[in-house]
Amino acid sequence: MTSPDSHGEAVRFAFGDSPALADELLELVLAGQKTATCGALNDFETGGEPMPQVGRQDIVLDGKGRPAAVIETVEVTIRRFDEVDEDFARAEGEGDLSLTCWREGHEAYFQRNGGFSPDMKLVCERFRLVKILERQDPKE
């Protein structure tokens, strides 16, 4: 769920693959616990997802599609799923922060979203929280 923002190169997106997961992961970002994310390289190459770019600021949406935060990409690497290390898993901020938990959760996520293999390539992004936005319900 991404689209270019009308203000510059910003991309608007929600983490995860459901409104509940989007809200859960957003809360980790807002708490400073989540400073990294990843996606299947194939989604960027063939699925139309915009590739993260170091220095670009993007808008994170909550589970209702409201702008909630601005993040800035500070690092982008491409690595295989089975090459992700404990440091990156911890930076993702999910579960008990272990590599085992990261692998289990992400394998399930990729299975739900197009398939999984241990040697699949991932776009691994580190980011920093720039600004928390005031969320307002859309006008009726």
Average pLDDT taken over every residue: 91
Characterize the largest beta sheet: strand count, sense, and whether it forms a barrel: 6 strands, mixed
Based on CA atoms alone, the radius of gyration comes out at 14 Å
Helical segment tally? 4
Helix content: 25-40%
Topology:
Elements: E1 3-4, E2 11-13, H1 19-30, E3 36-40, H2 41-46, E4 57-61, E5 67-80, H3 86-92, H4 99-112, E6 121-132
Parallel strand pairs: 2-4
Antiparallel strand pairs: 1-2, 3-6, 4-5, 5-6
Overview of the molecule:
With 140 residues, this protein is an alpha+beta fold. Helices cover 28% and strands 29% of the residues. It is built from 4 helices and 6 strands; from the N terminus they run ββαβαββααβ. The chain has helices spanning 19-30, 41-46, 86-92, 99-112, and strands at 3-4, 11-13, 36-40, 57-61, 67-80, 121-132. The protein has a 6-stranded mixed sheet. A hairpin with a 6-residue loop joins β1 (3-4) and β2 (11-13). α3 (86-92) crosses α4. The chain is globular. The model is unreliable at 1-7 (pLDDT under 50).
Entry summary:
Pfam families: ASCH (PF04266). This protein is of the alpha+beta class and about 140 residues long.
Q: What are the main properties of this structure?
A:
single chain, 140 residues, alpha+beta, six-stranded mixed sheet, 6 strands, disordered N terminus
